[in-house]
């Protein structure tokens, strides 16, 4: 399968199955787009034989018209059900009232609550025990607003680092925050402990304040901007800004530029995700405008690069070799298989967007009260309630927590999604977001059409930017 398109003055041919990206002249482009695999027939129309020989060489080197042997389908079957990452909802409360919040302004359609340290420790125990032979683990502090439970965050990190070290593992910590509470103390702490920080801001003041008011109804832009500027100035590690665009700011390239021009080098601007009939929802009618904005952003990225400005738009960061392992490219984010989310009450869900949806609840950490390992009790005899002997007297941990939806999510890959089978971008999006598919179509095997259209455009532009940069 080939995907052929033009970007600026370049003719780009993507060999879908190998991932090879070719910049070709007009003659080769015309031959491949007109004749496809029957390219040799073009000799009869007067195409020079050396053109055919050039294409023949690429074919012989498995760089063009390659077959998809679907070897990854067997790689997905029978994978160990290990968990390597947690989204830890330390706060189901928030000091913002974002209109588009999928978590119902932070409390996920339940009660406003904060995670206790005891539950946080159980979550870390759960991750370490269920991680199998994996050494590198990940925990993302999420909410609501996680800084509303800052003391517990610090205690969980301290406990987790010790617990992981005892088992020969390493936890990489991240946090997603709206930055309202990000004072000097918290910024300093996050700078020292977090491997990555995601800071939420939607761009221009009028755009941000319209969708992200504080709990008192007032705009949050000024405070957020002040705090993320401070974080930028002191940050030693990775961070990026994450915004959301809606029907109210279809000119979101201006919001990206607004942030980039203030010296923020890594920016993501995501489309609002909702199936509700609300005035800010992105619809099919908005696609031409949104796709046009992505094209503007591509021009901006190229222009900034020429000026020597440090700026990267998240969706244009692409590895033409297709990046991670082949299984990852086929099965996506790992929600419900390698990744789960845990609520303040210890409920376990496939990912953060499914939290509060009862049909997707996998269990509760209370089911694994006797989950503690010897390594945990060696750290502190106070880790768990009750005597140490009692803690180890329960049933075999392997028989306690069974992910009832593991097969459901493990089998949701590009080879089981009809819409993905013939899509040229399938190895870049890996079938898209399960939650987005479910809440749009009530089926994780049916990707959202709008999300697919946006992804295809972003991949085209990302590959185009890379190609132009390589030859420039």
Q: What does this 3D model show about the protein?
A:
There is one protein chain. The chain is α/β, with parallel strands linked by helices and 472 residues long. 38% of the residues lie in helices and 15% in strands. It has 18 helices and 15 strands. The longest helix is centred in the last third of the chain and has 23 residues, at 449-471. The protein is globular and about 75 Å long. The protein starts with a strand and ends with a helix. The relative contact order is 0.12.
Notable features of this structure?
472 residues, three-stranded antiparallel sheet, alpha/beta, 15 strands, single chain, ten-stranded mixed sheet, 18 helices, 38% helix, 15% strand
**Arithmetic mean pLDDT:** 87
Note the main sheet.
Answer: 10 strands, mixed
Low-confidence stretches: 369-399
**Spatial order of the strands in the main sheet?**
12-11-10-9-8-7-4-13-14-15
For the CA atoms, what is the radius of gyration?
24 Å
Write the layout of secondary structure elements.
Blueprint: E1 2-7, E2 10-15, E3 21-24, H1 26-35, H2 49-60, H3 71-76, E4 85-89, E5 91-92, E6 113-114, H4 117-130, E7 136-142, H5 150-166, E8 170-177, H6 184-193, E9 196-200, H7 205-211, H8 221-234, E10 238-245, H9 253-260, E11 266-271, H10 287-306, E12 312-313, H11 326-331, E13 339-342, E14 347-349, E15 363-364, H12 374-379, H13 388-391, H14 406-410, H15 418-421, H16 426-429, H17 434-441, H18 449-471
Parallel strand pairs: 4-7, 4-13, 7-8, 8-9, 9-10, 10-11, 11-12
Antiparallel strand pairs: 1-2, 2-3, 5-6, 13-14, 14-15
Helix pairs in contact: 4-5, 10-18
């Amino acid at each position: 399968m080939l995907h052929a398109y033009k970007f600026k003055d370049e003719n780009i041919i993507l060999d879908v199955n190998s991932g090879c990206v070719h910049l070709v002249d007009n003659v080769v482009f015309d031959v491949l787009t007109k004749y496809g695999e029957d390219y040799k027939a073009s000799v009869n129309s007067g195409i020079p034989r050396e053109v055919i020989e050039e294409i023949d060489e690429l074919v012989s080197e498995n760089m063009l018209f390659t077959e998809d042997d679907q070897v990854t389908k067997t790689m997905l079957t029978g994978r160990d059900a290990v968990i390597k990452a947690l989204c830890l909802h330390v706060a189901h409360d928030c000091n913002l009232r974002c209109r588009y919040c999928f978590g119902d302004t932070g409390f996920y359609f339940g009660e406003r609550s904060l995670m206790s340290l005891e539950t946080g420790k159980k979550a870390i125990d759960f991750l370490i025990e269920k991680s199998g032979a994996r050494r590198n683990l990940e925990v993302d502090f999420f909410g609501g607003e996680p800084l509303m439970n800052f003391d517990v965050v610090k205690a969980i990190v301290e406990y987790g680092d010790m617990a992981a070290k005892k088992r020969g593992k390493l936890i990489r910590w991240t946090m997603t925050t709206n930055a309202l509470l990000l004072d000097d103390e918290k910024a300093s702490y996050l700078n020292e402990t977090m491997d990555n920080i995601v800071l939420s801001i939607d761009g221009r003041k009028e755009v941000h304040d319209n969708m992200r008011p504080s709990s008192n109804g007032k705009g949050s832009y000024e405070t957020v901007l002040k705090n993320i500027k401070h974080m930028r100035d002191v940050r030693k590690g990775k961070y990026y800004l994450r915004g959301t665009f809606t029907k109210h700011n279809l000119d979101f390239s201006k919001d990206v530029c607004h942030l980039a021009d203030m010296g923020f080098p890594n920016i993501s601007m995501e489309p609002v995700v909702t199936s509700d009939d609300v005035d800010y929802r992105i619809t099919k009618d908005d696609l031409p405008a949104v796709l046009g904005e992505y094209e503007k952003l591509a021009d901006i990225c190229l222009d900034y690069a020429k000026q020597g400005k440090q700026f990267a738009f998240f969706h244009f960061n692409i590895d033409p070799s297709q990046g991670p392992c082949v299984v990852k490219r086929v099965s996506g984010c790992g929600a419900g298989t390698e990744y789960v989310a845990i609520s303040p009450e210890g409920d376990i869900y496939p990912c953060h967007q499914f939290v509060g949806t009862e049909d997707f609840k996998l269990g509760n950490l209370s089911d694994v009260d006797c989950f503690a390992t010897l390594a945990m009790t060696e750290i502190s005899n106070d880790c768990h309630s009750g005597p140490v002997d009692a803690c180890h007297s329960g049933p075999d941990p392997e028989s306690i927590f069974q992910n009832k939806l593991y097969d459901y999510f493990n089998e949701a890959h590009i080879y089981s999604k009809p819409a993905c089978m013939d899509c040229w971008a399938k190895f870049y999006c890996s079938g898209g977001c399960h939650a987005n598919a479910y809440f749009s179509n009530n089926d994780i095997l049916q990707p959202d059409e709008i999300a697919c259209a946006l992804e295809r455009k972003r991949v085209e532009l990302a590959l185009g930017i890379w190609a132009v940069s390589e030859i420039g």
